[in-house]
Amino acid sequence: MKISKICCIGAGYVGGPTMAVIAQKCPEIKVTVVDINEQRITDWNSDNLNKLPVFEPGLDKVVEEARGRNLFFSINVDKAIEEAEMIFISVNTPTKTYGKGKDMAADLKYIELCARQIAKVAKTDKIVVEKSTLPVRTAQAIKSILSQTGKGVNFQILSNPEFLAEGTAIQDLLNPDRILIGGELNEKGIEAINALVNIYASWVSKDKILTTNVWSSELSKLVANAFLAQRVSSINSISELCESTGADVREVSRAVGMDSRIGSKFLNASVGFGGSCFQKDILNLVYIAKSYGLNEVADYWEQVILMNNHQKSRFASKILSTLYNTVSGKKIAMLGWAFKKDTNDTRESAAIYVADQLLEEKANIAVYDPKVESNRIYADLNYLNSRSEDENSLLVQVHNNSYEACKDAHAIAIMTEWDEFKDCDWQRIYDNMLKPAFIFDGRFLLDREELKKIGFKSFSIGI
Ligand code: UDX
Ligand code: ADP
Question: What is the CA radius of gyration of the chain?
């Protein structure tokens, strides 16, 4: 079976870049990305490629090449569903904030709405591909909704988890470690799997395309993220031990990572991991384990999250204790708000939690992030509901550059490892700060010796 039209529901961090790359690599396939958020679609269609709703290095070039040729962004969800042979579901699946499974299970309401919409609109057979991160057995739920249509339409459900990391999405999509496709292992299922394999085979070698049953595929996504996050929490736990013993976590990390059985990646101690996947996926894993009565399994993985929460809170506490146990009325500059560099995504960013803790102490926070807009920063803080929106806008100022943010500050906290912070004129920043000038580097971004020479009192995690 050859696919000629694809629809993707959800034009976010996953749907947008993924479809842009598929469209670039498969010019014979018409790819339409739809979203209910009209502003998002307008931004995807913007002539100004700096205005795309997702910032991702290299994305603008791919969009420029394919958009209008075989890549389209639209709010006409029904039309795109109707004409496509293959439909990707790429909507958000946040952690539930209410009811059963609150703070742990994934909220599947957006997925269910999509399935119902597909069921309502489809007149011909469809392959439905789950692209969002979902708890194991979601495919079953989608299938059950779709099979209720009674229109004689056949639906095949595939799981095709996304392993791209934000900030390197285009490279990850162009050159993936593997592509994972789960489907039903019967004749129709295998036909659907092959249709998707053929799309990826346009640019990925076949030995990197794995096919499995649906549940293995769904679970593998959660496990991959849980393992990665576990490495970060493991090295972060050691960072605290290093601070107490005089070891240097970077040296430990290097020594440990050179063991080929362990490997060097994901061993950078930091202020804590963020992003839309790690926490959510582990919570999902914990919830699934609990629902099967596997309490030890659940507790094991939950510890990865607890360690991460501790790391964020420990960083904020360090700022407080170093500033003589009072930050009330003091200006603290936070450089970076995104959960890592090269993205404008702030979901679960450590910066939000560190800021929140300092705001509880009545600090004045001055933020600068090269790609995050001020309304996003206020929305992130307001969402926590720790204090009124008025109080947040009074205590938090957002600036357009590092120099403004750091002017007259008592301390600087580096929250995101943006390259441009390395290139700042740190002497100039120092000269304009209150003394003693403290700097807390949550990302090992700056050279401590250089900072010391200038006169900064500096703190890095794990040293
Ligand atoms: C992750 C997975 O890597 C990706 O495969 C999956 O599909 C989605 O989730 P992402 O959340 O975009 O991707 O970012 P990632 O690069 O994994 O970083 C996650 C967080 O861990 C960031 O906050 C990052 O700063 C932090 N991190 C990463 C560390 O603190 N130390 C490290 O050594 C690596
Ligand atoms: P992700 O990181 O998983 O891509 P995002 O929040 O960036 O998550 O993107 C998900 C997108 O899905 C959002 O733009 C949202 O508006 C869209 N969306 C959610 N539900 C629906 C729906 N029923 N139909 C169309 N789009 C939807």
Answer: 23
Does the structure show a pLDDT above 90 at 227? yes
For the entire predicted model, the pTM comes to 0.96
Tell me the average pLDDT across 415-440.
98
- For the CA of 132, the closest atom of ligand 2 is 3
- Closest ligand 2 atom to Cα of 54: 7
Longest dimension (CA), the chain: 75
For residue 406, indicate whether it is catalytic. no
For ligand 1, whether the C-beta of 278 sits within 6 Å is: yes
Q: Which of 7, 9, 14, 35 to mutate to test the pocket of ligand 2 (most atoms within 8 A of CB)?
A: 35
Q: Which of 114, 242, 277, 406 is catalytic?
A: 277
For 387, the token pair is 């204090």
Give the number of the atom of ligand 1 that is nearest the alpha carbon of residue 236. Answer: 30
339-352: pLDDT as tens digits: 999 999 999 999 99
AA identity, residue 351? A
**Token couple for 140:** 């079953």
Q: Which pLDDT value is given to residue 1?
A: 83
Q: How high is the mean pLDDT of the chain?
A: 96
CA distances to 82, 133, 349 from 9, in Å: 12, 14, 26
Q: 266 CA to middle of ligand 1, Å?
A: 8
- In this predicted structure, the answer to whether residue 132 has a pLDDT above a threshold of 90 is no
**Which residue has better confidence, 144 or 442?**
442
CA of 94 to the centre of ligand 2 (A): 10
Mean pLDDT on 275-300: 96
Asked if 162 is an active-site residue, the reply is yes
Q: What distance in Å separates the CA atoms of residue 232 and residue 440, rounded to the nearest whole number?
A: 19
Phi/psi for 419 (5° steps) reads -60, -35
Distance CA 393, CA 254 (A): 42
Name the residue at shortest CA distance from atom 24 of ligand 1.
273
Exposure letters 220-256 (e unless 16+ CB within 10 A, then b): bbbebbbebbbbbbbbbbbbbebbeeeeebbebbeee
